Amino acid sequence: MSGRFVDDLPRWILAIGPVVVLVGVFSLLYLTSPFGDLSSVDEASTLEIVWMLTVIGALAGIVPVAIGMLWFPFIRNLEPRYLHAFLALAAGVLTFIAIEMTEDVLFDYGPGVGNPTLATTAAVLGVGGTFAVMYAASEWRQRTMASSEKTGLQIAYLVALALGLHSIGEGLGIGVAYVQGDATLVMLLVLAFVLHNVMEGPTVVAAVARDRATPPLRHFAAMGLVAGGPVILGGWLGSFAQSDLLAVLCFAIAIGAILQVLIEVADLIRFDAEAVLTWINVVTFVVGFVLMFFLEDVAVDLLLEGWLVPT
After folding, report:
1. Which residue segment(s) compose the domain that 170 sits in?
2. What does the alpha-carbon distance between residue 180 and residue 100 come to, in Å, rounded to a whole number?
3. Is residue 124 part of a domain?
4. Cα of 309 vs its chain's centroid, Å
5. Could you tell me if residue 273 is inside a domain?
6. 242 domain-assigned
7. What is the pLDDT along the chain (311 residues), one digit of tens a residue?
């Protein structure tokens, strides 16, 4: 009954509904500043720190991903060529994230390790090892499947996994700011991650929309946890065991995963399309890349410079 009700809604409501929800959540966080004064964090127990970082991580990771997944009903009813374009947009989002993390490894965390050889080894093993393992797993899956068809749900889980690995790095920054008692920075980081993590939702479910049957709701919940939940894990690590080497390894693993996922997304398009590089796919790939650049670099810079900080 609920699925039929959603299908009966006008297309424009399905398109702008998640935006309305995002604005509401963002405004609530922005106006209430729910994290309060963190000056007494040094006196907090381990359990209290873990709980608060769990709440913060859920707000920064799981909530925006869930909001983004609300676009699924809109994406599901697209024509095949437009669905492929949405998959290309997701690839643009993933590509931007991979490039951004590469910059983090090379210019932010890598130099902080102190031992260039150790940092390079961790980066190479993280990228290469993750890519090799995921590629081998994909090949094995294809050999053991009764059908040669790739299912969107399987690819969606891989996308969620790659995004989740990337989200650990976001949590590291939150954890460090939290233990330093910097409530303003914590708030800004949460708002920044809400802004750009919302795009991870449609990135995950775009592949599922290709399948004929809609999977049970538990799969959407699981993928949301896989994609956004690691922000919580990163917060824990950042508060208790933060290190530049750990950040390098986490980012490198995420980069390797994204590279394999990009291949899977291209194969998914190629399976039922004559070409991957159509004009509409190229355009939407660029749109996804530019949109993430705006959300990550432009909007976040505005936040950090104080343009949007409540007075």
Report:
1. 2-304
2. 25
3. yes
4. 24
5. yes
6. yes
7. 455 556 667 877 888 988 899 889 888 887 777 766 666 677 778 888 889 899 999 998 999 999 999 989 888 888 888 888 888 888 898 898 889 889 888 988 889 888 999 999 999 999 999 899 888 877 776 665 545 556 788 888 888 888 888 888 788 888 877 887 777 778 877 887 887 788 888 888 888 887 878 889 999 999 999 999 999 998 898 888 767 888 888 888 888 888 988 888 888 787 766 777 788 999 999 998 998 888 766 666 665 565 444 44
Coil, strand or helix at 130: helix
CB atoms within 10 A of CB 293: 16
> Alpha-carbon torsion 106, 109, 115, 118, what sign?
negative
The pTM for the full model equals: 0.76
C-alpha angle 94/97/98, rounded to 5°? Answer: 85
CA atoms of 63 and 51, how far apart (whole Å):
16
